[in-house]
Design a protein that fits this description.
50% helix; four-stranded antiparallel sheet; rod-shaped
Length: 218
Amino acid sequence: MTGNKYLFSSLEEPVQIDVTLGNNNKVTVLGKGMVNILTKKGEPKFMPDVYYVVGLKQNLMNIGQLIQKGYRVYMENNECVILDKLPSNMLIAKVQMTTNCMFPLKIRPAMKGKTAQAIHETHTVNSGEAFKVADTKSAIAKTSTEKFKTATKMFKTATKRFKTATEMFKIATEISRIPTEMSKTATEMARIAPKRKMIFCRFLRICSFRRSSYSLQL
C-alpha cells in the first residue's frame, strides 16, 4: 500500500476497506490499482492490487500477499531478496537490513499511466526505431564507403591521365625543338658555305697554276 497517488498507472475508486497495521492502527483504503515499477536491472514490471491509503507516510509491502501471488521472497544474510514468479527468475528487488531490523525498499516507479503491455509496446517500438536508425546509419556508412572507393578510382584515373599528358607534353617539346635545331644547322651551313666557296676557288687557282707551269715546261 502507498499514500502516493501519482505512482498508480490505474486506480479503482472508491474502494473502502479498513486495514489493521502491525501496531494495531487502522487505516482506510480509498482505492486499489496497479503500480508500474522498474526492477533492479531497469526492466519494467507491474504490481497489481496495490492499496491507496491517504496520509500514509511510508510505502508498505505485505510479504504474505507477495507469496500468495507467486513471488518468491528470501531473507538471509541480512538481506531480503524478491524474485519474480516462475518460470521467470527476474530480480525485482534486493534490500539490505538496517540496524533497527527493517528492510527499506526503494523501488523506482516506471512511466505513469501506462500498463505493462503499453510499456512493452513502447519498448518494442523504441527498439524498432533504434534498429531503423541503426540500419539508416549502416546504409549511410555503406554509401560513404562506396563514394570513397569511387573517388579513389577517379583520383587514380586522373593521375594516370596527368602522367600521360606530361609525357605527351615532353614529346611535343622535343618535337618543337627539331625546327630550331634544323634552323641552327641551316644557319651554320650558310655561314660555312662562303668559306667553302673561297677554298674551292683557291683550289681551282692552284690547279690552273700548276697546269700552266706544266705546259711551259713542255
